[in-house]
Amino acid sequence: MPMFIANMPTGLAEACYFYENSGIYFRDGMGLNDLKKFAVHEVIHHIQEVKNEKNELVQMGLSNYKNGKGTCVALNEAAVQIVSSCVLETKLETVKYYGIEFSTISPDCYPLICNLLSQMCYIVGEDLLYDSVFYSTDKFKNKFIELCGKNSFNIIKKNFDLLLQLEEKIIILNNKFEDENCPSKKAIKYQSIINIYKNKIKDIFLHTQKIIFTSYFDNQFLRLQSDSDIEIYKTKFTIYKDLIGITDTYSDFSNYYKQKLNDIEQMHTQILSRKFPAKKTQNKLVLFLQSLFNKFRIHLK
Fold it and tell me: In degrees rounded to 5, what are phi and psi of residue 2?
């Protein structure tokens, strides 16, 4: 596998895999430690690629290129980064970006989408993620759709792409902003646009996160049938709250959690009523009329 040193825009890319020549390009001046870290990521991309007889790329992990345009590209980048971090035994860290605090095993590379994909992975399972990453299958995607719905998945994959695009725009504007020759008026304008993008990123992240946990737990709630189902459901909920990203004013998950606990109590009451049905009691009026009828019948005799 050929490897090259290349001039790359500051902040946009540290390394890049180019499928047409199966080559990996690294940013000029990169240290050995960073080179190792990014090499693992790009080598996985090389393993992922599936080409047709015309040497055209048709699939790469979770992303699909059959129609000429890539879909689920950002989703696949997050998946590869998670796997790369596991290979490098990166430790889980708590970080804060764009006012959002969360835990991730990839604090420096795609931290936002890696956190969101970790939430999806908790729902679907790590085995299916690894299968889709290394063998370019749709197993992870299909299982998520089964558990959360196709509409939810389509929104999520679109939002993943938007998050990457907005971060790239911020990097480009930051490069212009930090240019010594940048006029002060333009610098103010760039900073204003950057702030708008940052707020958009925060909103999209929190919106995507909400779609993930509500679609999953709403669907699973409909499948509860027993006490053991309820306990498993509540345990999954408790663990999930440690995976989410939060802000200083964030309350969506806690509000949703409280509502679902209320729903669970009602569900539990229904289950108990099916197990131990209440004894039927006769209407007092009916008993009184029966008594009168018996007395009348005796009198006739």
Answer: -70, 145
| Residue 56 vs residue 271, higher pLDDT | 56
Q: Is 72 left (phi over 0), alpha (psi -120 to 50) or beta?
A: left
99 CB-contact burial (10 Å; exposed 0-12 / middle 13-18 / buried 19+): middle
Count the neighbouring beta carbons within 10 Å of the beta carbon of residue 211.
19
Residue 169: phi and psi, rounded to 5, are: -65, -40
Query: Which structure tokens are listed for 82?
Result: 């998670």
- The structure tokens listed for 211 are 């779609």
Among all chains, which residue has been given the structure tokens 């909400």? 210
Handedness of CA 275, 232, 126, 137 (dihedral sign): positive
Alpha-helix residue ranges (DSSP H) falling in 5-110? 32-48, 73-87
Q: What is the residue whose two structure tokens read 């080409």?
A: 51
Lowest model confidence (mean pLDDT) among 136-140, 252-256, 270-274:
270-274
Reduced to 3 states (helix: H, G, I; strand: E, B; else coil), residue 23 is strand
Q: What is the pLDDT of residue 257?
A: 93
For residues 25 and 181, the answer to whether their CB atoms sit within 8 Å is no
| Phi then psi dihedrals of residue 104, to 5 deg | -160, 150
Q: Is the pLDDT of residue 234 over 80?
A: yes
Residues 246, 102: Cα–Cα separation, whole Å: 7
pLDDT of 112 over the 70 cut: yes
- Which tokens sit at 208? 């995507």
DSSP state of 280: P
Q: How many CB atoms lie within 10 A of CB 171?
A: 15
How much is the average pLDDT of 135-139?
Answer: 95
pTM above 0.90, yes or no: no
Least confident of 36-50, 52-66, 220-234, 263-277: 263-277
Select from 134, 76, 123 the least CA-distant residue to 243: 123
Helix (H, G, I), strand (E, B) or coil at 274: helix
pLDDT surpassing 50 at residue 300: no
